[in-house]
Amino acid sequence: MSVSRRAVLGAGVAAVPVLSLSSGSAGAAEDGPLPTDPGAYISFTGGAFSLVGAPVVVSSDDHPGVVRVAGDLRDDLERVTGVRPGSTVARQVVLVGTIGRSPLIDTLVAAGKLDVTGVRGRWETSLQTVVDHPMPGVEKAFVIAGSDPRGTIFGAYDVSYGIGVSPWYWWDDVPPVRRDRVWVLPGRHTQGTPAVKYRGFFINDENPALGTWAPAYFGPGKAPGYPGGFNADFYARVFEVLLRLKGNYLWPAVWGRAFAEDDPENHRRAAAYGVVMGTSHEAPMMRGIEEWNRYAGAGTDPYGGTGEWSYRRNAEAIRAYWRAGIQRMADQGFEGVVTLGMRGNGDTSLPDGDGIELMQEIIAAQRQIIEEVTGRPAAETPQVWTLYKEVQRYWDRGLRAPDDVTVVLTDDNWGNIRKHPSPAEPRGGGYGLYYHFDYVGAGRNYKWVDTANLRNVWDQLHQAHAYGNHGLWVANVGDLKGNELPTEFFLDYAWNPRRWSFDRLGEWERRYARQNFGAAAAGEVAELLAEYGRLQARRKPELLNRRITLAADGQVVYDDQQTPFSFGHRELERVTGEWRELGRRAARIGRGLPEAAQDAWFELVGYEVAATANLYALREAEFTNLRYAREGRAATNDLATAAEAGLAADLALADRFNSRVAGGKWRGFQTQPHIDYGDVDRYGPNAPWQQPEKDNVALPDVLFPAVRRIEVPEAAGLGVSVDGDEPATNAPTMTLPPFSPYQTRPQQFVEVFNRGRTPFDYRVTASVPWLVVDRPRGRVTRQVRLEVRVDWSRAPAGRSSGELTVSGAGESVTVGCVAERPPSRRALRGFVEAGGYVAIDADHYDRAAGQWRRLAGIGRTGAGMTAWPVTGGWADSAASWPRLEYEVTLLSAGEVTVWTYLSPRNPTLPTAGLRYAVSFDHDEPRPVDITAGADDGLLNTVWARNTSDNINRSATRHTLASPGVHRLTFWAVDPTVVVQRLLIDTGGLTPTYLGPLESRRL
Question: Which residues partner with 929 through β-bridges?
C-alpha cells in the first residue's frame, strides 16, 4: 500500500494515518527489484563496490533512526574489516537515506541515477544498489535507500547481516569473521515488503534473570523508589536487536516495571530508534498496569477514585488514567499501537464479570478518549484488541470490536493457536497473533531455557499465515536472552512466510548457525539445534518431576514427586541417554570452535544443552534413588550422591554463565530456578505452578523431591527386580514382559541386587531350554543386570511358559516368563503385534488418500502427519475425508483399544471441536473430538495435561471378529489435526510417557 509521509516514524499520534493491516508478502512491486535473502548481495571475493574503508554518509535531515543506523553500519564495517569508515563524501561512498526525506537520495532519484521502482511508497522496504557517477567527484556509490525510515534502517542492518555481523553480536557476544575483502555485487537488491505489518516481541516474566542483571549492568531505574526499573540504555540495546531482526514493535517489561516512568527517556529513545511501542494485552491505552499499581491504594487513586481496578465501580478515575496515557503519546510524539479492552489487575480475568455490554462500553469509552485527545477519528490511530485467555469468550459470544481495530488472536500459552480468522469475517483492521516462547501460569511456568521446537512453531505460524493473519504478530520471549533462536525465526517468518517452507527449516537453522559460529561448523550446529528442539519439546524441563495420570473416575491427578517417564521399556534410561549423547555432541562441537567464539557458543548453545542434559541425568539419579530406597538397595546412597552432584553441576554451569562468560558481563542473569517446582512445604500453595519464590523473590534451587539415604546392613541380602517393575517387590514370583520374535522393546532383564554391604554369589537357572540368561552365575556387590532372551529355534509355536529361579544369599526368587511365537511368518503382514500391543509412527502408512504433509521432527518421537492444505477444503463426509491406512497383524480376536497420539491443538476454526476418526477394515469411521473436556480459556486440568505432556491422547474401542491382518485407518475430519502415533492395545500395553518403540513391520 502507499504510505504517506505523515505515516513515517516519529510522527505524533495525531499525525498517524489509517494503516491497513491486511495481508502482504515479502515481494516488490511489478518491475521492481527481485527480493533476495538477507545480505545475499555481499561477496568476500569480488564485486561492483568495495566496502572496505568506504565512508558511510547520511543526511542530517533524515529521521534520527536513520542517522543513528548509519553509525551502527560504520561500527559493523569496522568490526569486520578493521578499518573505520568515515562520514563524509569521497570518491567511493556508501549513501544511506530515505526516499522523500533524504536530499542525498532524492537528488539521485530526480537525476535518474537511482531507480526506486517497486520500493517507493511501500511499507518498510529497502533497496541496495551500486550507482556509477552518482554526483560530481564520486565515482561509485553503494546506495541503501528505504521507502520509509524503517525501510532504510532495515536496509542498513541487512548489509550488516550480509558482512557477517550477527543480530546477537552484543546480546550473545558473537564475534564476526574478520575480512580483508568485502564487496557488493552488481544489481538492484531488496528484501521485499514484510508480510506482517507489525512484528515484535514482549519482554515478560523477567524476574529473576533479566530483572537481576539489567539494573546492575545498566544502572537502576529512574523512578523514585523503583530501582529495579529498566532504563533507556537497556532499552536501546533491545531496540537495536529488534531492528536488526527486522522487527518494529515492542511490548515492554511489566513485572513491577513501568516503561514510561522507569526512565522518562524511554519513549523518546523508542521514537529516536524508530520502534513502534505497544502495551501488553492486560495494559490498555498505552499504560502499563504498574503505572496504576504504584499510586492506587485502598480507597484512593490519583484520579479522585476509589483505587479499584474496576470499571463498574471506578469508571471515571480509570477513564482519566487512560486519557493520560493517550495524551502522553500525543505530546511525546512516539509511534504507538493502542491496546483496547480491559482485564483484571495482575493478568487475570476482569473482576467486574464478563458481560458483553460492559466490554462494549469500555471499548467505546476508550475510542472516544482517542478521538478527543487526537482530534481525529479513532480509526486513524492503530489499535488492537487481544483475545487472551478468557477474553476470547467475548468474541465467541458475538462481541466484535469496530472494523478498523486489529483483533489479535492468541495461542494457549504453550504454542498452540486457539483461533484463526474466519474467511467469513474479513476485517479492515485485520487480525494479529500473540504467541509464547515463555510462560508463567497454569500447568507450570517455563522460563529457564529455550524449549521451542521449530517444526511446531512453523506449523502454527504457517497456519496463521494461511488463514490470513497478517496484521500484528508479537511473541512473548521472556528475558529475550535465552530465546534467541525462536525469536529470530518468528520475526523472519513474519517478514516472508513464503521463503520458509517446512522443507527449508534445515536451511534456516544452518543460516542461523553460520551467522553465529561460522560456515565450517554450521551443518553440525544446525543438526544439534534441531535435535535439541525436538528433545525439549517432549516436556518442559520444569516439569521433569511431575507425573500426570487419570484416576478411575477420569479425573486428572498430578504427582510432583514422580518422574513422568517410565522405568518400564527402559524409557527413563533411554531419554536420559539421548540427552547425554546430545550433551557429548555439543561439547565436541564447542571444543572445535575458535577461542573467540567460546562465549557466544556457551550463551547460545552450550549452556542450554549441557544444563538440560545434566538436569535429565540429575532426575534419573534422583528418581532411581527414591525407587532404590523403597527397595532397600545397597546402591541407594550412590544414586543420592549422583543426584547431589547433578545439582552441584547445575549450579556450576550457572556460575560459569554469571561470572566467567564475557568477563562477567552477564553476572546475575543465570538465576532462574527450574528444579524445586512443586515444593509446597518450602514456598507455599502456588508451588505446583509458580517458580520457587518467597515474597516475590526467587529462591535458589534445591532437590525436590529430596533424595533419600538409608542405612545399609552389613549382612548380604538378595533382592530381585524385573524389567518394568516399579518398584521391585521381591515377591516369591515375579513376571517379565512377554517375549516375541517380533518385539522391538529393549531386551527384557532381571536385576539382582544386594540389600547389604557384603557381596554374595548368585545363580540363575531356567526351567525350560529356550530361556537364555546372558550371565547365569556371578557375584553381586551392589547390583547386576542380567538380560534374558529366548532361543526361538528351541521355543515351541504359540504361547509357552517358563521360569527363572534366582538364588543367592540364602534366598530364592522365581521369575515367570512367557514366549509368544506366531505359528507362521507367512501369515504376518504390516505391523505385527508383540507383547500385547502394536505401536505405529503415523508417517509409516501403507496408503494415503487425499493430500498429506509429513512434518519431520514435529512429534515427541519423530514425525507427524497433517492433512493438506491446513485450510481444508474437503467436504464433511467420510468419503471426502483425507485418510491414512496401516496394515497390522493381530494375534487374537476380540476388543482392542486404539490410542491416538496427536499434537495438543485447539479448535481454531468456526466449526465446533477438532475431530479425527478411526476405523478397522470396512467399519464406519468413529469420529473423536480431541478437545472434549479441555478448556484452554479456563486453563483446566485436562488442557493442562495435554499441554504439559505435549500430546493429546484419546482412545477408541473396537471389536475384531478374527485374528490376522487388518487395515487400521486414520481419518482427518477437520484440518489442522497433526497425528504422531497410533497404538493398538490388545491387552498388554503398559503405561509409558512416549509409548513403546514402533512395532516391527513386515
Answer: 915
